[in-house]
Structures are given as structure tokens and as C-alpha cells.
Amino acid sequence: KNQVEQSPQSLIILEGKNCTLQCNYTVSPFSNLRWYKQDTGRGPVSLTIMTFSENTKSNGRYTATLDADTKQSSLHITASQLSDSASYICVVSAKRGANNLFFGTGTRLTVIP
Amino acid sequence: EAQVTQNPRYLITVTGKKLTVTCSQNMNHEYMSWYRQDPGLGLRQIYYSMNVEVTDKGDVPEGYKVSRKEKRNFPLILESPSPNQTSLYFCASYYRADTEAFFGQGTRLTVV
Q: Is the separation of the CB atoms in A16 and A80 below 8 Å?
């Protein structure tokens, strides 16, 4: 069964600290993995897309890693800011079919001053 | 500016009163999808469309209809809304099935 699991469900950190969010998946055949940021009540916005051959990709203070062998990904946020408070959703795309996006339930990050 | 536009953003309606949520994209994408998002469940696909006049059911299609008469528009229709359809709805479009999806701002629907 194709599944995407994220941990932790929620996280509270102090402004300026780093944090790492985890994503494990069982989606096969794998096409790519995406991390989205979703502010409360708004649509998800893409942070990174990683294919099988990529193991690290950065977008500013966000760095995603992918281990296709263990089917794990992480999103590392450096020097957190209050504006980083949001849900972060891991989405894995399978190679076949148009109905091929599998969503994690997200990690709710709260950055406090 | 590339965008996906949904309307309305907020809607409160009564059980059984037909409603339509519109979705429009300006990126000439072939693929469009509708999702609902409920607490603890993440995003679940309702319907998707691979091109004009080509639509198919997602994971939770019951109680919904869609149409794709033109490439840019993909309305979601609730013929007889029920309280269990109270949710946050998102429309998304993408160039190919394996490319980045662009999401609309969401429609918060409450059915009383």
C-alpha cells in the first residue's frame, strides 16, 4: 500500500533554532518527492522537488534530503523565523497514473519568540 | 503571474442546496485536481482531470461532480451538500503528473 508518514505531528521551537522534519514513504514506483509549506487556511506552496538521483536540495534556509534506498526524506530548517510557523507536507509522486500523488498528514511547526 | 484561483474563499450553506466552487488556472496546465483537507487526515483527492473532457475519480468522490469543458476551468459541484462535506477544499493544477502542483488559496465550506 502506498503511504507517506511524517513525524513529528507537531513541533515547537524557539526562534533562531534549527529543526528537522521527517518523511517515510512506501510509494512505488517512485517518481519524485516534494515538500510543501502550508500556512494556516492557505494553499500549499512548493519548497523543493527531488527525484531519485538527487539526495540534497536547498531552497534558502530549507534543505531537503532524500535516501531512496531507505525511502526516507528530511526537511531541515536553519535559523528558524516566526514566519516559518506553518504545516509542512511531504508529497510523494508515483511514476504511473494521473492519480499518483500521495500526501503525508503534515508536521505542524510553531516558532516562538 | 502564474496562479490558481478559487472562488469563493468562504461559503456557508444549508444541507441540500446545490453549490459550485470554481477553479481557474492561467498556466495552460493539462492536469487539474480537487482535494479536501480535514484535520488529521491530510489532503485527499476528490476528482482529477488529465485534459478537457477527461475526468476521473480520486479517493473520495462520493457526493461530488466535476466538469472540464475548457482547459483553464475545473469547477467542483456539490449537488446536494451534506454536513460531512464541511471541509477545506483546494484546487491544484500541474503540467504533468510528475511535475510541481500549484494550489489555489482554498475554499472553506461549511454545510449546516
A: yes
Q: What is the C-alpha to C-alpha distance for residues B39 and B50, in angstroms, rounded to an integer?
A: 28
By CB atoms closer than 10 A (0-12, 13-18, 19+), residue B32 is buried
Strands B10-13 and B107-111: parallel
Instruction: State how far the Cα of B101 lies from the Cα of B110, in Å rounded to an integer.
Output: 26
Q: What is the mean pLDDT of chain A?
A: 93
Q: Which residues of A touch B98 (CB under 8 A)?
A: 31-32, 93, 95, 100
Using the Cβ of A43 and the Cβ atoms of chain B, whether some distance falls under 8 Å is answered with yes
Whole-number Å distance between alpha carbons of A68 and A92? 12
> Residue B48: closest CA among chain A residues belongs to which residue?
A99
A39 touches chain B (CB under 8 A): no
3-state secondary structure B3-64: CEEEECCEEEECCCCCEEEEEEECCCCCEEEEEEEECCCEEEEEEEEEECCEEEECCCCCCC
Q: Are B57 and B66 in contact (CB under 8 A)?
A: no
Q: What long-range pairs does A50-59 form, CB within 8 A, spacing at least 24?
A: none
Residue A25: pLDDT band with limits 50, 70, 90: very high
Tell me the nearest-neighbour CA distance from B100 into chain A, angstroms: 7
pLDDT reading at A99 higher than 70: no
User: For B40, which residue in chain A has the nearest alpha carbon?
Assistant: A105
